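We treat protein structure as text, and this decision shapes the records that our systems exchange. Below, we set out a record of this kind in full and without editing:

***
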Amino acid sequence: MNDRLIENYHLLACHDLQGLQSAGVDIEEADFGVKLEEAIRSILEQLGMTVDEDLRKDINTAKDKANIIISLENDDVIVGETKSLKN
């Protein structure tokens, strides 16, 4: 499924449910955020970056949540927030 989401990333990022369905991607409105995170995580991993799910789960709280954490050298990290454009 991630390959189909990546192929149609422009539709996913623009929150185009109809376009995704026309492209054969079965997705529910409620799943857009999760699917966008999965696609971005997969793209970053394909680029050779280390997406650190364990650290993300450790630092997330009920109030503050990071969508993606990329581990770098020397204990440095990049914290990312994923958002789609909703028309």
